[in-house]
Amino acid sequence: HNLTGLTPETLYEFYIRADCGGSGASTWVGPFSFYTGYCVPAPSSVDGLGISNVTMGTINNTTVAETGNYGDYSALITDVQQATSFAIDITLETGFTYDLWVWVDWNDDLDFTGAGEEFYLGQAPATNPTTFNGSIDIPITAPLGNHRIRIGSAWLGLGNTSPSLPCYSGDWGAFEDYTLNILTAPACIAPN
């Protein structure tokens, strides 16, 4: 059954029962539950502080190792135009090589599995701390408005080939979510 008008980032509970026709209805069973939000990555461990800073656009967020090695900073929003290259600098304090990924939910369907929603940035060196300078290309077709962006890093667990794991729950990883506000493309798009 499809429901509409639900509140995002909310846990709902429901009960069900059988319609037995002329015999009435069964007893209610439940509660069952579902969540109207993004999966929550849950790395079981992280080396050092994990991600200690994310700088992109107007966001410059310094953090420490979060509970569950995941930080929801989606209230922090930065603007970016369609058809541009968007710089993302990630500081890691791990002392190990971590693969870095970015996922953007372009179609706002609460997952990161759509075409063009994942980007492999590369592998950060083991230097502690290290700042990895990466970027993603914002498609000219990126829908205007706010979209969830997830930054994830892990030692070995994410790999370097698609598809990756935006809902990672293995060892040695750190994840953070933010929001991109997509604006119209510049009047004159730079060549690439």
Report what the structure shows:
This protein has a five-stranded mixed beta sheet with strand order 5-11-10-7-8, with no helix packed on it. The chain has strands at 11-16, 29-35, 50-56, 59-62, 70-81, 85-93, 98-104, 118-124, 130-137, 145-154, 173-183. The mean pLDDT is 94. The chain is mostly beta strands. Helix content is 0%, strand content 46%.
- Uncertain runs are none
The H/E string reads EEEEEEEEEEE
Radius of gyration: 20 Å
β-strand percent reads: over 45%
The tally of helices reads 0
- The side-by-side strand order for the widest beta sheet comes to 5-11-10-7-8
Keywords:
mainly beta, four-stranded antiparallel sheet, single chain, 192 residues, 46% strand, five-stranded mixed sheet
Topology:
Elements (H helix, E strand, L loop, with lengths): L10 E6 L12 E7 L14 E7 L2 E4 L7 E12 L3 E9 L4 E7 L13 E7 L5 E8 L7 E10 L18 E11 L9
Parallel strand pairs: 5-11
Antiparallel strand pairs: 1-2, 3-4, 3-6, 6-9, 7-8, 7-10, 10-11
Q: How would you briefly describe this protein structure?
A:
The chain has 192 residues and is mostly beta strands.
